[in-house]
Amino acid sequence: MRGDNLNGPLPLAGGRRPGARGAWLAIAGTLIMAAASGPVGASIERSADARATALTSHRTLLDRYCVTCHNRTLKIPAGNPLLLDTIDLAEVSAGAELWEKVVRKLRTDAMPPAGRPRPDQAASDALSAWLEAELDKAAAARPNPGRVPAIHRLTRTEYQYAVRDLLALDNLPKELDIELLLPSDNTVGFDTTAELLFVTPTLMEGYVAAARKISRVALGDPQLPPIIDIYRLPLELPQDDHFDELPLGTRGGTAIPRYFPLDGEYVIKIDLSGSNREPYELEVSLDGERIKVITVGGPAPSGGARRESSRFEADGNAPLEVRLPVLAGPRTVGVTFVKRTSAANEALVRPFRRGMGQQPSVAAVTISGPYGTVGSGDTPSRRRIFVCRPKTQSEEEPCARQVVSLLLRRAYRRAVTNSDVEVLLPFYREGRTEAGFDAGIQRALERMLVSPEFLLRAEYPPQHVVPSTAYAIADVELASRLSFFLWSTIPDDELLDLAVSGRLRAPGVLERQVQRMLVDARSQALVTNFASQWLYLRDLQARRPNDRFFPDFDDGLRQALLHETDLFFGSIVREDRSVLDLLAANYTFVNERLARHYGIPNVYGSHFRRVTLGEDSVRGGLLGQGSILTLTSYATRTSPVVRGKWVLENILGAPPPPPPPNVPALKDTSAEGKALSMRERMVQHRANPVCASCHARMDPLGFALENFDAVGRWRTNSESGTPIDPSGVLPDGTRLDGVAGLRRVLLARPGQFAMSFTEKLLSYAVGRELGYYDAPAVRAITRNVVLNNYRFSSVIVGIVKSMPFQMRIQE
Amino acid sequence: MIVTKMALPRRTFLRGAGAMLALPLLDAMVPALSALAKTAAKPVPRIGFIYIPNGVMQVHWTPKGEGTDFEWSPILSPLAAFRDRVLVVSGLAHRQAESFGDGNADHHRATAAWLSGVHAWTRRTGLEIRLSTTADQLAAAHLGKQTRLPSLELALESPTSIACDSGADCFYSHTVSWRTPTTPLPAEIHPRVVFDRLFGDGGSAAQRLAQVRKTASILDSVTEDAARLQQRLGASDRTKLNEYLDSVRAVEQRLQTGDKDQDPALVLPERPTDIPGTLEEHARLMFELQALAYQADITRVFTLLIGREQTNRTYPEIGVADGHHAVSHHQHDPVLVAKKAKIDTYHVRLLGDFLERLRTTPDGDGSLLDHSMILYGSGLGDGDLHSHNDLPVLVAGGGSGQLKGGRHIKLPETPMANLLVSLLDKVGVPTEQLGDSTGKLSLDPVPEV
What we know:
Distance between the termini of chain A: 42 Å
Order of helices and strands of chain B: HEHEHHEEEHHHHEHHEEEEEH
Strand order of the largest sheet of chain B: 3-6-1-9-10-2-11
Structural class of chain B: alpha/beta
Radius of gyration of chain A: 30 Å
Oligomer: heterodimer
Mean pLDDT of chain A: 86
Low-confidence stretches of chain A: 1-41, 305-310
Number of helices of chain B: 11
Distance between the termini of chain B: 58 Å
Number of strands of chain B: 11
């Protein structure tokens, strides 16, 4: 291998045309071998001539294609000019920030702008590669892990999961819903961004109150008053079909997983809506066991007057409720209808609104209790807390110490000292005196949950730290970074043990931990937390596609769309698939409702299953998923611009700059008053040169998705009735046609997506926006990802072992 | 114990069951009954700030004529019934919300500047968030000393991501309330959370006292933890820990503020369960809670965001199927202009309902409306152009005799911050300077010569 391959292209851009992919991978391969052989080294005695030649040719390229605009006279872009005429190409490290910008613009084809002369691809790639090599060399000599605050408050989600794992408490009563306990974090970008995680008095009030509620439920405080939780079903959720979590042979209703804090009696009350003309059987179950079947509706019993319409009562006019003893712990309450064979499928009659159908549906379920508390019971939570049980009074305090120590270790995520325990014991003693041993532990736990050591993740500088020099963070801090990254929660005992005993950084250990953690159920946090923020899935909840245009969009479909993407991303994580599958996969997950939406035949029932897609399917990968297609649309129509911007930002990692102020909005009609197609409107808009430079990049990407309507259905005609033309030309001249064409173009540059994906994950992992100084680390991770067939775990391992993840710097 | 069912009329939209029974688990942030007896003597000053997003259709907002002799504009017409309690001010500007070469985040800077008069750098300083203490928090620091909650921060919409550009832009539109230049306060959208903060726990006075004592000892103890951690951090790393300590102290202070006897005439709605499905119900519920907070003197200061800047909320209830932000860039298309005016009018109607609630609530020798000052407006003037001048501004309420309504004041361009200074002055919080203020705005009628 020739040494100058090191200066060849990174696996970021390559075959311009779809067919070039093979060739491109070959280049990537050589490169990686070169990179793997270690940093430069061999080239020192290579003549200074070669370098001089390279410098001259790169300078010539810059002068010819870039300096026309980027110079001292024109000062483009305004406000923050990029001066490529004066900067010294021989001293790349001195201008690292500027050069990283140049590399990104070249690698993502953002520059030169559309319509301007472009250098030939090889020369442009050579310049990028040369700059990258120079930048990487400089970064290796002087690592900069970036500044992240030493204190990182737990996000609201992290707090919720930490409580779950610390105390084995899940599906808490609604009264203890996290969104009722703590204010929303309201950050931008990823909610892990440390800088934006503030502590406010309102939040502190929330912590204090939450600690009390949570500790009482965890311990099963017999004094706990009854809790009343109302679970309302979405108005637009059709209930004419079987729901997955409920017994076969039923339709509609809901299954509510819920933690019952104490052994005692509870009341389950049901509100129905819809017609009561005919009798229906309503089934109430606990953990899948039928508790009671109530006949509702139909003619009144024993010849009484016909029941008032729209009111449901059980026989004898009793309210629709069931009182039953429940053992403390996690249970599932089911409320559903016994299915009748003649039932009409009302999902076919749109628009669906609850109460408009022929059959009754469940409007709300209220669970209240405990009444007549029997005891604290034997719950997973108490088992987890009470690692010992005092038999005599003299055993109490030693046992309390043991219980508290273990809780502290997990909650504070580090080895515990005697003085840590001493701080908590007065609270134990006070509670013990007041109401017994359990109450003592409850008080100590309550105090612990308000401690800054639980609520804040702190990373302390070592003694005698040299300012402005990167240092490795402590092992326990690394363990926390790892578990909050992959699980959004505290480390488990295995991970913590490794860190406390100093074995976490031993060869192979981090890799094995990552593999173990990814297959653990807690890695679902990467789906619910990372992916949903990366892809903006959380926005979908607030989407209200207009029911005049999209009458069959309802909450059932919304949830199905979200579930598909969740399952799909989860499959990438847990099956350790190639991250390129995110762009194009030959499978997805659907249930009957979603399959009907997509036009996929032969899928019946409400449960989701993996379906293999045909070669010509339009659905494989994120770009064919209704969730993303809907959240990038307006209520009444698609937006190629929003979709194009979404692709640039989230798939290509090359967000366009924000539009200039005072941009004229799209017009619906031409000057002659003729209705315009979306494409015609965009053409008008782009006539403005200020707009054109970015739209030339965004719009073709968005237009390629125009065959999907604003809720993700396939179509051949647009809103205005004109045939869809999904073709377009990228600024570099690449033609693309429809979603298949877009996929091919994206896959032709696999490294670019891998890099963008790495950046998103790294930013999420370290809790800050990335800076130019992170680019060398991102490139190094990406190289390795390419070498590992783009496996998901190789991205994670790469990040975990990267300098920004392992190190800090002190100002 | 709070009793939820009483004789006075209750709003039917507040549904939910078993609210009373659900209360006891709620935590006792409620301090013990204090010696402060309720006196009907001097009305307490109250101030509120309501933000509307995406500017307004100014031609349909600005009343014709000035002084007392003005004609209601279409958008403001829902306030006709409150004429003597509404002061419309035209000509105010927030020039600090302009770009200064820092990107085009006009929407977000508009929210940031609204009560601060300070420019939010959204790009230049990355995510190092910095603004200044906002007018509501200056008021809260003072008026809040006498009440259990210094202020309430409310919103009717959650943030979304799709419209956000990179950088800190969107962050600045999450809230209009900044406790310090580096501590923005989250705005709560869940009515249940607000209800619980206001009315908290039932329980006997003795139980509540015991709970306050327990909470105080926890706060004491965690303060020591935090102080220990401080010593292990470098000076520049202490910011977040200081926030923690500062918050602990603030909660301690709230514990010490005496709880007033609950007014037996106070009728609480049933405890809300979920966020209502429509803006109208959501707004009414939040306004109702705020009215109760005034009535029970739990807080004297609030802010409320009717929507977040750049929101694309649709308004099917008034026949606007397009997103608000899209509509606001109307380009003078008459159809879109009409829709934007419709949305603006609808928001004003929601305000009118709130004012009606305040007007019909007796307070001392008058009504709550007589003794409040509610600023309503936006940091964007023309939403289509993203302009920050000719802002929509109105002040409702009597300000305990300090505010003379029934007028339209037309000014040459004047910093909006001047109005904020005047309002603070009227609630007894004299402020030298706020953001780019150049003095105090005289809101009093010009005496006839």
